[in-house]
Design goal:
By secondary structure, this protein is of the alpha+beta class. The protein has helices spanning 3-6, 33-38, 43-54, 97-102, 120-123, and strands at 8-14, 18-23, 28-32, 71-77, 81-86, 94-96. It has one domain: NE0471 N-terminal domain-like (2-Layer Sandwich). It has five helices and six strands; from the N terminus they run αβββααβββαα. The strands form two sheets. It has a three-stranded antiparallel beta sheet with strand order 1-2-3.
Length: 127
């Protein structure tokens, strides 16, 4: 897929619902606000996802503001990404077009950095 085909033709942010992306190839993707926040590509969120993958009992940071989570703003970053600001104050993740394609809830693609394959020693359980 070329960079032009990979880039969006149109972005539509419904602050209380989510982000709709109309892609150059004619497909459409919808990302709910809570999903975008959970899948933020920021280093902090990526580390938390890795910790949760290793230990499902990881203590999550408290980000509850007492209000429903919303997207408060979005801005284009060059020709390759969008930055979304959330009502909980998070705004450090840059959602590249490739990353949005990768985390598309309706058409996910595997990310080797998020879900590494188990090594042979991890899969060979003693019998």
């Amino acid at each position: 897929m070329t960079p032009i085909e990979q880039s969006p033709a149109h972005l539509d942010l419904a602050r209380d619902r989510g982000l709709t992306v109309h892609w150059q190839d004619g497909t459409q993707s919808f990302y709910p606000v809570a999903y975008l926040r959970r899948m933020s590509p920021s280093a902090e969120a990526r580390t938390l996802r890795e910790q949760l993958a290793k230990n499902p009992l990881t203590v999550l940071p408290n980000t509850d503001t007492g209000e429903p989570l919303t997207a408060t703003a979005a801005e284009l970053v060059g020709n390759y990404a969008v930055r979304i600001r959330f009502s909980d104050g998070h705004d450090t993740g840059l959602y590249s077009w490739d990353y949005l394609r990768q985390i598309d809830p309706d058409h996910p693609r595997p990310d080797p950095g998020l879900h590494p394959e188990p090594s042979a020693t991890e899969t060979d359980a003693p019998t």
